[in-house]
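Standup notes
- DV: blocked on the single-chain target, sequence here:
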Amino acid sequence: MNKFQEFLKRKNIVFSGKRYGIDALGAMAQGLFCSLLIGTIIRTLGSQLKIPFLVDIGTYAMAVSGPAMAVAIGYALQAPPMVLFSLAAVGWASNAEGGAGGPLAVLIIAIIAAEFGKAVSKETKIDLLVTPAVTIIVGVALAKLIAPPIGKAASAFGIVIDNATRLQPFWMGIAVSVLVGVALTLPISSAAICSVLQLTGLAGGAAVAGCCAQMVGFAVMSFRENRWGGLVSQGLGTSMLQMPNIIRNPRIWIPPIVASAITGPLATCLFRLEMNGAPINSGMGTCGLCGQIGIWTGWVEPSAEAAAKGAVAITPSGFDWLGLVLICFVLPAVLCPLLNAVCRKLGWVKDGDLKLS
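- DV (later): unblocked, structure below
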């Protein structure tokens, strides 16, 4: 056992929730962002502006989402170069075989293939052949074997959430908004979770509402401590910056969570706000305005995942735009400072608790 542990340590193979559930998952979201998400935005712009060149660029970027995710995961796992480059083929196969649940298949299979590749890396005199061969064979074999059922399971679970939100928009609006919003602020990837679950439609709209409540809420209610730099870094970057403060005083998290519990059902029940762009947008909030761009692209050109659930292109009304602005910006900016003032009056939050280090 000691020899095996020494081998794992030498190979930098660490079986931990942090490495797989935080590092790898977060990296996968970045890979997805740099391929599928940005590609979707560019293609939609090209389609709306009648610029075929942009449509082509976006289409090519979207096509390599599988390899991009797998390579990003390998990078997070600190895979050596030969393993890292070989993961491109693994990502392509896993994403293709996984279908609608491709991102989840890529996450699981790329992790396994990367660790096998790391285990054999530089162990033989023909490393140039052995390392890529083992990585690709293990990864592609698993893609053929387990990616389809993984994809079906993820897709089915996403459909359950979507249907449940349609049947119970109030309660599911609260649940999805709060849970995805909390995931966005935690050191895990809400974007990757939404992508894995293929979260679109009303459920996607609730997810966007929850993420915006966290990002805009923290940005505005901490303005006194963090000024304009904090407003931009949290409002357009990530509310995850507040995690050290949340650990020190968890009560500062109450206003954004309560705000998300309010804006979520408003999004699903009143404004019927649907996010039918790429599912990853559902977990982005106001980060680079990707959540709002996702809602817009879903209006004019629903993603394949949303179209599979019956989404069609629409011409947004003034009420649709009003809902987007209120849910994503105005309500979080108003509710969170008010709720934070109540927390301050109760003595739960004091000056400096929201200060970014």
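- Follow-up: The chain has 16 helices and no strands.
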